[in-house]
Amino acid sequence: MSNAIEVQGVGKRFGDVVALNGLDLSVPAGTVFGLLGPNGAGKTTLVRILATLLAPDSGRAEVLGHDVVREPLAVRRRIGLAGQFAAVDEELTGRENVEMIARLYRLPTAEARRRAADVLERFDLVEAADRRVATYSGGMRRRLDLAAGLIGRPPVVLLDEPTTGLDPRSRQELWRIVDELRRDGTTVLLTTQYLDEADRLAQRIAVVDRGQIAAEGTASELKAAVGTTVLSIRLADRAAAHDASAALAGLGAAEQPHVDAADGEIRLAIEDPRASAEAVRRLDARQLEIASVELHQPTLDDVFLTLTGRPAEKGPTEEILEKEAA
Question: What is the pTM of this model?
């Protein structure tokens, strides 16, 4: 299978902050590829480079064989883009928004209207098509934004955290649309902080941290990388969390457990659930009182904590970094 996106050694800085640090990535054509990572990891910067909105400081990137720096117009003609916030005009109707984008693609008026009608139906926006976008819900605006991005029928779609802030029903609707795009042969690069979203949609996932790929594989492979089970222990005395961490060192997949001192919780990935009994024995030997013990399957935070050493939400967003460097 050929690759729709090729990224080789791409670097990007905002002042003293390194957003991308020699990142390499290959996205097979006709697949949904998920990019996971905490805020500030480099996901949005990469999407903006692929969309020709930012130029890389080093390395090269191609979309369908076209270099994003040397052939920006060719790249733009082949991509659709939807970000975390719907880029639609609230004063126009949904139909007017989509038809306007179609005309920017230089489609004839009749063809622009026909395609607008098609995408509005596909995204379940026909009933609201002639209402001002100011009356739309957040989920409807996000669907309209994606509809506008697909009006030119691009073979590659870049989705930058498209479900952030959406309610469960709206998330499910967008998931259905992404599934349909893949079945139609469209390549989708999806950035997200939700492992369940990448697990549901992506055939392959890369974890991005500090501007590099920290791990790559299927959702199952990434979960297995942090251990088959996660042990969470909450202490009766929150102040004893670091003492408990020292007692449990070396018991899990990582050398040191993760400590949430504010909640008095220690979390560590383990290969054998019977290690929980050993953990209890170690804490009891130090007379550290336990409030609760829980075993569960790895979550997004567990993957991030093991691979990056921090939860998904930590770190400044790349939009803030870019503004500070401007």
Answer: 0.78
